[in-house]
Inverse folding.
């Protein structure tokens, strides 16, 4: 069910958002009965505190939501989502306390707090609904929320129901919704179409590998999004231990994220031409599985020595990135759950990104702060280029030593792109529940990119 604001004609319960140092002023404006109730409940405006003030009939007359201090709020985001979880079902209206970017973030947080993954369980109880605040772009916020929900839904779906074919179905449904064109190359046709590394990585699975290619828009600069679509990753012959395989349903998180971002771009009708490329595979094991020490020839003609079959994401992305370059896009952005090294470096919350363009980096960092979608620039550090050059082939897919794993993976990908390029090494998973982010799949970097696109592409 789409995430949506409540009908503005519905009777709504007013919500006052109150910083800690403003509690006394707010309480003084209430009735003596309400003041007594607030004091009895020890309402002090701490972050996330919720107080429902009763009316004469035993219903809710008003809701007070604590907003803490600016210093405390800076430690996280989507604070309104925490309050939503404490409210009973009903319709609400943010009556006071928030303005500008904070009000927009609160409205988005409210919608995202309504997301739950219940495909295999009983639907959750109805979520509290919000009347869209007058001073926000409600249509844009709803589009962004539903793009994020699409990303979450795809990542959360287990591999039994989210293989390459099902990922293709999701892309086709999105293309149909927005009247985009779509072409898919499947199985052995990848060989004749010169996508050798996508085919090699996916050929051991009973579920055929494929390259999904979606296009939308007729005018404006071309943006090409490339998403890693490894629907499940056993590690191949370098098989993962069970403890490392448990979250591998999320290894198509890059594909899920670019599809969510594509929904936002198309639904908002941005003045650009969009192309989405997703190499969709399952990295599995049978007699045809590729091996350590194999040397593969990529679409670009560069040869790659395989030193670890569990470093397969960069292989399928390489062929897709080569294709992305062939029609001279203004900007190529890849998103992938690519390396554990990125998580060691920045943790689960932050989206590390790589670009050689300082203006693009500045625009993205500024946008990320505005929309509460944290990113961090990482370096294409050229002295490390030698680490991905094994000597026997042009490139090494898994340099020895274990150092700078995210950087060397990004340098590997950059070898296949000549166009302006930005790469995200995301996690795609919320390990513990947080405001508006239940445990499970989560979008990373998409909202920041969306906000930065007008400046990056001069729209």
């Amino acid at each position: 069910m789409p995430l949506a604001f409540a009908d503005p004609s519905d009777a709504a319960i007013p919500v006052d958002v109150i910083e800690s140092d403003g509690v006394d002023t707010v309480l003084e404006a209430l009735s003596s009965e309400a003041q007594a109730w607030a004091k009895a409940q020890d309402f002090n405006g701490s972050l996330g505190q919720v107080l429902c003030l009763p009316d004469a009939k035993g219903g809710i007359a008003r809701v007070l939501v604590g907003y803490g201090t600016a210093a405390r709020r800076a430690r996280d985001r989507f604070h309104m989502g925490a309050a939503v979880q404490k409210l009973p079902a009903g319709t609400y209206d943010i009556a006071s306390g928030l303005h500008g970017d904070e009000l927009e973030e609160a409205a988005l947080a409210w919608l995202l707090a309504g997301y739950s993954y219940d495909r295999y369980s009983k639907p959750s109880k109805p979520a509290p609904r919000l009347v869209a605040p007058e001073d926000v772009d409600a249509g844009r916020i709803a589009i962004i929320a539903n793009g994020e929900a699409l990303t979450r839904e795809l990542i959360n779906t287990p591999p039994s129901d989210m293989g390459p074919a099902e990922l293709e179905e999701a892309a086709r449904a999105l293309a149909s919704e927005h009247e985009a064109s779509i072409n898919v190359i499947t199985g052995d046709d990848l060989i004749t179409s010169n996508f050798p590394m996508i085919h090699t990585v996916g050929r051991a699975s009973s579920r055929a590998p494929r390259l999904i290619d979606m296009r939308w828009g007729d005018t404006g600069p071309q943006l090409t999004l490339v998403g890693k679509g490894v629907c499940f990753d056993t590690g191949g012959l370098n098989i993962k231990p069970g403890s490392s395989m448990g979250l591998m349903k999320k290894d198509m998180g890059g594909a899920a994220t670019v599809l969510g971002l594509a929904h936002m771009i198309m639904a908002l009708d941005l003045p650009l031409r969009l192309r989405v490329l997703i190499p969709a595979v399952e990295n599995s094991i049978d007699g045809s599985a590729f091996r350590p020490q194999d040397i593969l020839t990529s679409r670009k003609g560069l040869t790659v020595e395989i030193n670890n079959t569990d470093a397969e994401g960069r292989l399928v992305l390489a062929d897709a990135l080569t294709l992305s370059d062939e029609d001279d896009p203004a900007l190529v952005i890849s998103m992938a759950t690519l390396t554990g090294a990125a998580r060691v470096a920045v943790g689960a919350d932050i989206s590390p990104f790589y670009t050689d363009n300082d203006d693009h980096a500045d625009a993205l960092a500024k946008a990320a702060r505005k929309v509460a979608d944290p990113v961090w620039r990482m370096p294409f550090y050229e002295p490390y280029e030698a680490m991905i050059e094994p000597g026997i082939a042009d490139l090494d897919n898994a340099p020895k030593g274990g150092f700078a794993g995210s950087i060397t993976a990004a340098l590997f990908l950059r070898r296949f792109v000549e166009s302006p390029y930005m790469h995200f090494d995301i996690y795609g998973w919320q390990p513990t529940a947080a405001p508006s982010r239940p445990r499970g799949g989560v979008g990373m970097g998409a909202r920041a990119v969306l906000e930065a696109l007008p400046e990056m592409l001069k729209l």
Summary: The first strand starts at residue 13 and ends at 18.
